[in-house]
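Objective 1b of the project was to move from sequence-level analysis to a structural picture of ligand recognition. The entry below was assembled by the postdoctoral researcher (A.K.) and checked by the PI before modelling. It contains the amino acid sequence of the target and the SMILES of the bound compound, zinc ion.
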Amino acid sequence: MKVKLWGTRGSIPAPGPETIRYGGNTSCVGVTLSDGSMLALDAGTGIRCLGLALPDEPARLHILLTHLHLDHIQGLVFFAPAFRPQTEIVIWGPASPEASLRDRIARYISAPLSPVEVRELPCDVSFRHCPESEWEIGSARIRAASVTHRGPTLGYRIDDGDSSLAYIPDHEPALGADLAQMDEDWISGFALARDASLLIHDGQYTDAEYPCHVGWGHSATSHALSFARRTGAERTLLFHHDPLHSDDQLDELGAAAQQQWVELGGDPGTLELAVERSEVELPARAAKAAAAV
Ligand SMILES: [Zn+2]
Ligand SMILES: [Zn+2]
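Corresponding predicted holo structure:
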């Protein structure tokens, strides 16, 4: 499984010279499965460049939306494959008692916010509510579960061969909870991230900033680290960077996070800040066995 980060920012795009290293595009992660199937996790502004990087040939693409906040869907109408008749796009997302996924997304892809309507998109697009049980896409088993955020929000786990990716970009698991003491069954998102090869997790606020943002749906550094340690994820990327955080501030946040991580007993090489356009290859079973030898 190959993972590429096309947008690592949260809330709103933050382009400019002060965010050039970690990136200014909002949430989007491209995943290429071992059988070649292509998934996009969220469709923030980062999906625009993902779309430009895909070859112009018939394809079936899956977009897995965690939720419908604008920073996770804003790139949909700028995703080049959506304008090719030979492309099939399946958009997965959370169900809501209020309206179907298609109707909720159509509030954005319609006038006056958008020049095109969903029915005018040249591609073959379909919308599916994520099932409660696991399902398969290509060579992967996918699991979605509701997590603590504002409004109906999912986290995802993707198991492909022996590798697993947990993607929980907008998450406040410490809201009203002591992550160090709480029984694991009660921790939001725990089962998604348990022993994952790679965890991509919300790390929006510093510990000093968090008290002014309780209940906003995001994690302080120490919450993200406690969550990562409790779940036993092998490697963690702090993601959904605050738009107010410059590269220099993120360097400081990263250094403080490393220190806390080591104090929690973590291996310093297993925690990083997410960087736009960076790639991670998660080894398949045979490669893992060889590495262990
Ligand atoms: Zn977000
Ligand atoms: Zn959100």
